[in-house]
Write a structure and sequence with these properties.
Structural class: mainly alpha
Strand content: under 5%
Shape: globular
Order of helices and strands: EEHHHEHHHEEHHHHH
Number of strands: 5
Largest sheet: 3 strands, mixed
Strand order of the largest sheet: 3-2-5
Oligomer: single chain
Number of helices: 11
Length: 311
């Protein structure tokens, strides 16, 4: 195939899931429902934390920011996919592809870093409860979110710059419903060895450090909880970590599944199916995970909904 520089490639073809006309209505309805549930669920969490004075704590402050990042994360890919299914027009321009790639990495990194700050928050609350109000003051919480924002921005721009240096062939077909780094690396005609090495280094730093921070926090938490004499005290301490730990496993587990499917899978469409869990299902489940077993969130949501119904 004749190669040309990426700057002259004006569009890419997103293969999506299926070309069967009979499945288009089903896919559109299913993904629209999941997207609306994800956005509405996370929006309710943000509103509940913002308007309820009982939730003005560091843990719920980080949770509201996580919900905001989840809305941005799923909104980066799903509206475009719904439009492609509805219009049967699966073309994405070069500029929009890079923008989508940049936003996806930005919000994904924000999710990762916010989960790390939430792990640190639980570590301070359990291991140093007397100093918790002093350590986790509003200034530090705001600074942690601000630092996460700028780190995520830098991370997303690194990926965007790396992709902009690649050379692609004509008639580029992306076997997914959005532009992603592994897919673009697989489709590049130029030598991608340096880009792959750089990508591994970027992921090792920006992915390994948050995971290491989460693991260290929970090692300290478990060590501290084991010293509690009563079983009731141990359960009370660990119950505050259950929702966060489940979200961490879901986020990193599905992310790893998407990466492995794109690397070792023989089916081009299997990666797209795995990406659905990562980009839609995980942001949709997070509000339910944090609210179903959390009495404070339940009460705040009830007060919010009753206030809305009254007006």
């Amino acid at each position: 195939m004749e190669s040309q520089n990426i700057t002259s490639v004006s569009k890419f073809l997103l293969l999506g899931f299926s070309d069967d006309p009979e499945l288009q209505t089903l896919l559109f309805g299913m993904f629209l429902f999941m997207y609306l549930v994800a956005v509405l669920g996370n929006l309710l969490i943000i509103l509940a934390v913002s308007f309820d004075s009982h939730l003005q704590t560091p843990m719920y402050f980080f949770l509201s920011n996580l919900s905001l990042a989840d809305i941005g994360f799923t909104s980066t890919t799903v509206p475009k996919m719904l439009n492609d299914i509805h219009t049967h027009h699966k073309i994405i321009s070069y500029v929009h592809c890079l923008i989508q790639l940049s936003l996806l990495n930005f919000f994904g990194s924000m999710d990762s870093l916010l989960l790390t700050t939430m792990a640190y928050d639980r570590f301070v609350a359990i291991c140093q409860p007397l100093r918790y109000p002093v350590i986790m003051n509003p200034r530090l919480c705001g600074l942690l979110v601000l630092v996460s924002f700028f780190i995520s921005l830098f991370y997303s721009q690194l990926h965007c710059f790396m992709m902009s240096q690649l050379t692609f062939c004509t008639d580029v077909e992306i076997p997914s419903f959005f532009c992603d780094t592994p897919q673009l690396l697989n489709l590049a005609c130029s030598d991608t060895s340096s880009s792959i090495i750089l990508g591994y280094c970027i992921c090792a730093i920006f992915g390994g450090v948050p995971v290491s921070g989460i693991l260290f926090s929970y090692m300290q938490i478990v060590s501290s909880v084991l010293k509690v004499p009563s079983s009731g005290g141990k359960y009370k301490a660990l119950s505050t970590c259950g929702s966060h730990l489940l979200v961490v496993c879901l986020f990193y587990g599905t992310g790893l599944g998407v990466y492995l499917s794109s690397v070792i899978s023989l089916s081009l469409r299997s990666g797209a199916v795995a990406s659905v869990i990562y980009t839609i299902v995980t942001p949709m489940l997070n509000p339910f995970i944090y609210s179903l077993r959390n009495r404070d969130i339940k009460r705040a949501l009830q007060r919010l909904l009753s206030r809305t119904a009254y007006f």
